[in-house]
Design a protein that fits this description.
Elements lengths: L13 E2 L17 H15 L4 H8 L3 H13 L3 E4 L16 E4 L1 H13 L8 E2 H10 L9 H7 L6 H14 L3 E5 L5 H7 L6 E6 L1 E4 L2 E4 L8 E3 L17 E4 L3 E4 L11 E2 L6 E2 L2 H4 L4 E4 L9 H14 L1 E5 L5 E5 L3 E6 L3 H4 L2 H6 L2 E5 L4 H14 L6 H14 L7 H16 L7 H11 L11
Parallel strand pairs: 1-6, 4-7, 5-17, 5-18, 8-13, 11-14, 14-17
Antiparallel strand pairs: 2-3, 6-10, 7-8, 9-10, 12-13, 15-16
Helix pairs in contact: 1-3, 1-4, 2-3, 14-16, 15-16
Protein name: AAA family ATPase
Organism: Vibrio chaetopteri
Length: 449
């Protein structure tokens, strides 16, 4: 498989499913009332004083639901009510002007709620609702066609050969193993696969299950397309559930920094907010484990952790309170490595990797075309002497035509030209200088293969 490192065009995205409808009653949330009451207390503690509208916006629920929760809290004497001066009894007065604060006993309850978990944000969705929406947004519901995979791999050399392999692989939903020498484009191609899925998805801000709130939406891993910000200006029945965010499908890539803790429900170092593991963040999207075999955890431990989820598409997570939750494992999982597959896993694991795809260096013709395209994109000129020098350097150092080289080498040539204030022509001498700066004494690793 051959690849160049240029960006594929992103397709226009439309939601795969209708948006989750806005709940109109407390019971429709399917969340224990005490959990929602605690969330109200934490929001008020955070805001000091808050109106019904402010709480509804912060929790992503209707004002009717907030009113219900406030009534419960008032009956328990956990709230203080502050009415605006001069408006009480006037025509301009409404419940939206009333501000709520915590009473002394309310502050104590809020402190207890924060000790249990420090989550403050939109109300969580139930695990059942999360499972249902994830299942509806499964990429296998709408199979990828030849045109979609071709669009995702636009700008990739050898894409015509990849399409016939990667298309069925993605539609299968099974894990992929991309292997081959370093620099052959495995990670780049893997990252482009998400562009095959021409649809957006709804991701919850948080999920509630078995006494725990798990934060799911992450600014670092999810790209929001619509935050439902127009909801205040449209009719209630036209709104969708604000506890969900419309996002691009997640495209999460992790390498040597991967630890076993990142695969379990965990809290941040600064507070007790329980965070979803990587595989849950990647649901309905793509999770790439890059440089497999270079992680701090052993390959065996990593593969054993996921051997059941890959087989049955469900992951069993240990929750902070010691209980266990069955979470959907509905994602495309891709492993990338420059190690021999036989050296990283036993036959039982390799069997569960439905598609094992080897990547190779470019052929000479494609490689030279790539160099020309990269040079042109940087406004640099090359000539026949340059081309001859490229082939000579590769032959002398016995370096394969890895697709990662042109971008790096031409970049160094550009730096040399700018520094010396020379014309925008890459001469053989400049190329040779760049090559020696880029390569180690034994070339690009070709001598060690």
């Amino acid at each position: 498989m051959n690849a160049i490192t240029s960006l594929a065009n992103k397709p226009l995205l439309s939601p795969q499913i209708d948006p989750p409808p806005m709940p109109s009653a407390l019971k429709e949330l399917d969340i224990p009332v005490v959990v929602l009451e605690n969330l109200v207390l934490k929001h008020i503690a955070h805001l000091t004083k808050a109106t019904v509208l402010e709480l509804a916006d912060a929790m992503g629920v209707s004002t009717h639901i907030v009113d219900e929760l406030l009534n419960y809290l008032r009956k328990r004497s956990l709230l203080e009510v502050f009415q605006p001066m001069g408006l009480s009894g006037s025509a301009d007065y409404s419940n939206n002007h009333v501000r709520y604060g915590l009473s002394a006993s309310g502050e104590q309850e809020a402190d207890l709620a924060f000790m249990k978990d420090a989550y403050v944000g939109p109300a969580p969705v139930s695990l059942d609702d999360y499972r249902r929406v994830v299942a509806l947004q499964d990429v296998r519901v709408n199979s990828i066609g030849h045109e979609q995979i071709a669009g995702a791999l636009r700008g990739v050399f050898g894409a015509d050969k990849m399409i016939e392999i990667l298309g069925p692989a993605l539609n299968s939903g099974r894990a992929l193993l991309l292997y081959g020498n370093s620099g052959t484009g495995k990670s780049f191609v893997a990252a482009q696969l998400i562009n095959s899925f021409e649809s957006s998805i709804y991701i919850p801000f948080a999920v509630y299950t078995s006494g725990s709130i798990i934060r799911v939406f992450s600014d670092a891993h999810h790209k929001m397309l619509d935050n439902n910000s127009t909801a205040n200006r449209i009719h209630f029945n036209e709104q969708y559930d604000k506890r969900w965010a419309l996002c691009e499908r997640p495209n999460i890539q992790v390498g040597g920094e991967l630890t076993m803790e990142m695969l379990e429900v965990n809290h941040s170092q600064h507070n007790r907010v329980w965070l979803a593991p990587l595989q849950m963040l990647a649901n309905n999207g793509l999770l790439i484990i890059d440089d497999l075999g270079r992680q701090k955890i052993s390959v065996g431990a990593l593969l054993n952790r996921w051997i059941v989820p890959m087989e049955y598409y469900v992951d069993y997570l240990q929750l902070p309170n010691g209980q266990q939750a069955a979470i959907p494992f509905t994602l495309n999982l891709a492993f990338s490595t420059n190690l021999n597959p036989l050296d990283i896993g036993d036959p039982a694991f390799l069997r569960r990797l439905g598609y094992k795809i080897e990547f190779f260096p470019l052929n000479q013709e494609d490689y030279m075309t790539l160099i020309e395209e990269v040079s042109e994109s940087r406004g640099l000129t090359i000539n026949s002497e340059f081309r001859e020098m490229v082939l000579r350097l590769h032959s002398t150092d016995r370096t394969p035509f890895y697709p990662c080289i042109p971008k790096d080498i031409i970049g160094i040539c550009s730096d040399i030209i700018k520094f010396n204030q020379e014309s925008h022509v890459i001469t053989p001498s400049i190329l040779e200088s760049a090559w020696r700066l880029y390569c180690t004494s034994d070339g690009m690793g070709g001598n060690n293969e």
